[in-house]
Amino acid sequence: MPENNRTKLLIARRVPQAVAARAIDEFQAYVTESDMDSWSVVDFCKTHNVQAVLVGKKSGLQKEHIAALPPTVKIIANASAGVDHMDVAYARKQGIAVTNAPDALTECTADFTMLLILAAGRRAAEYGKIMRSGWGKSFGMTEMLGKRANGKTLGIVGFGRIGRAVARRAQGFGMRVIYTDIVRAAPSLENGATFYPSVREMLPHSEVLTLHVPGGGEPLMTKEEFDSLPKGAVFVNAARGALVDEDALYNALTSGHLFSAGLDVYRNEPNVDPRFASLENVFLTPHMASATVETRDQMGFTALDNVAAVLNGKSALNPA
Ligand code: DGY
């Protein structure tokens, strides 16, 4: 790639074609063909004096990586909403902006959460398995029954953009929505949902529970929290695997306390605890809640918008 005075941007994770094309058009962009690891990013930045980096999970930058970056780097952009692969506070201290893409994936993630709620409640994994093995036996009126969404109470932990988008969809399915967050939302955002001041107080009322908070720190869902859910509850997680004690979840699923679970995220991705695959009452997907053509383009474009803003001396559009 010819050297010139344009901003040097390293795209350290694979991005959709449209995003790569725009990056090449607007910046002096180096676009990786396979996801780079963190130290390769640092080495590349040093060798090429880049000013901006777009990273993903594998190329996430912790304190030791950020400390080793050259002073040319002004922004680390993420195309994701979650930034648990980054030491945001340390980067900020070093004067490096860190951005994310919080709006781009809201609608897709909320759609996918409904998919998990419906698939887990309506035994989609089991029905799929039956059909793929040839069916061959009609079911009677009392066999293979699921749980309907209509009329159930959905507990939402985290009433941010995604939590609220899930609430809107769930109301369309005739669910009663309750939620908990650090503070109560304004009535216009609440839109009829009922606030509980703590997870602990909300859980016993949550026939279906879905998480929409960032990961990191101690798990939010341990044995105590699963035990607090009503017997026969459906548990859904499209947020982060670190929010869940997976032994406790496994036990709640095998003891019959939970009816089922719909999971898109896991503690040890991409190597999921194999016990989950052996359970009939779990609907599993490989961290794909934002995986549509439209949303992935939008996530990448948001990262590029942030790079352009910061390198033009403006504030980051989406500081993480
Ligand atoms: C996000 O953006 O946080 C999604 O989970 C994809 O990583």
TrEMBL record:
Domain of life assignment: Bacteria
Domain D-isomer specific 2-hydroxyacid dehydrogenase NAD-binding: 115-289
GO cellular component: cytosol
Signal peptide coordinates: none
D-isomer specific 2-hydroxyacid dehydrogenase catalytic domain residues: 46-319
GO terms for MF: glyoxylate reductase (NADPH) activity; hydroxypyruvate reductase [NAD(P)H] activity; NAD binding
Keyword presence, Oxidoreductase: yes
Keywords annotated in UniProt: Oxidoreductase
Sequence similarity: Belongs to the D-isomer specific 2-hydroxyacid dehydrogenase family.
Protein name: D-isomer specific 2-hydroxyacid dehydrogenase
Species annotation: Caballeronia telluris
Organism lineage: Bacteria, Pseudomonadati, Pseudomonadota, Betaproteobacteria, Burkholderiales
